[in-house]
Amino acid sequence: MPANHFAILSLLLFLTAAPGPASVKAQPQVTFQFDIESELKNGSFDPDRHELKVRSNNYSFSDSGFLVLKQSDDKSTVYTATARFPRSMIDKEIYYQFVIVSNNRIIKEDFTRYVQIMDNHLILGVLSFGYFEL
To answer: Integer distance in angstroms from the first to the last C-alpha of the chain?
Structure first.
C-alpha cells in the first residue's frame, strides 16, 4: 500500500474511532417571580432601601446564601431571578422563603415553600407574601 494511502486510511480510522463532542445537557434552572405591589403600597418595601431575596434552608444560592431578585422589565412590581443548579440536584427539592432585607434586618415569610428541581428550565408562577414573621 502506498504511503499516502496508508496515511489517509490511518486518518479515517482515527476520525471514526475518536469520540465526538460529548452531548452537554444544560443546567437545570428555576426562575423565581414575586409581585411586591402590596408591600410597596403599605410601605414595608422601598426599592431604594430594601432588597428582595430568596433564601433556602437546604441549598446555598451564593456565597451569602441568598438569591437577589431584580425588578422585571415587564411589570415594575414584579421581581425575578433565575437560579442555575448542578445536574446532581435534579429530582431533589429545595425549601425556600422570600425575604426583604434592609440594613441587615430580615423580614421573612412565616412559612416555607418548596420546588422540585427538574431537568429543564422551570418558571414558577408570580407569587406574593403571605404573612410576615418579624
So the answer is: 84
